[in-house]
Specification:
There is one protein chain. With 222 residues, the chain is α+β, with helices and mostly antiparallel strands. It has two domains: 128 residues, no CATH class; 74 residues, no CATH class. A hairpin with a 2-residue loop joins strand 4 and strand 5. Helix 1 packs parallel to helix 7. The two termini are 33 Å apart.
Length: 222
Amino acid sequence: MSFPQWQCPGAKPLAARSPYAYHARVTPSPQAIQTISTAWETIRERYGAYTIALPGVPTFHCQPHLCDAHCCRAFTVNLGDAEVQRMRAASGLAPARFLESEHGEPIALPLAQPYILARRDNHCALLDASLGCGQYEGRPNACRLYPHFLLFFDSTTARPVHGDIAAIQRAIGDLHAGNPFEHLVPVLVRHVECPGFTGAPMTEADWLALVDETFSLQFPAA
């Protein structure tokens, strides 16, 4: 099974998915883009593995033949209970078949996402011979998220913020409403090692939709 040609989500699905749809903008405000760019220039030295993703950068199309499925080899993937159940339903497999297990039972670590996707021969156990995902439909959120990630920074101290879900939600709401950022600045980044950024330049509408998609994957309970 080969990877579908993943593309940035379009602007139309945003209105159906976003909790901010009632005040969603079609495009981000110029002031928001400038604030995000300025924030990134302040903190970019801390994030050598990433670069900022803004409107105008090439869109992402997964091309595992260009990198030998690097993400499936380089990263260990954690899963939560909902992701395990989704993969179980999509694959028809018992969790012990796709999770790191011991004596036939999945290993549960003391983490918010306690399970680990199984690995074999230094790569994900679900990576098939064609460099595709053997269980693409039910794949974990981390795999759906890659190679993008949302960072949130205090607009005063430039320190990263992870656990203040209410403030993170407000920042996304401000972005969609076109309001000045009240406290946190959201910065969409992309992994520099991924060679899949070969598509057409991302429109402002597609960028805003991608921010929303990434937010939903990183904070599924928000």
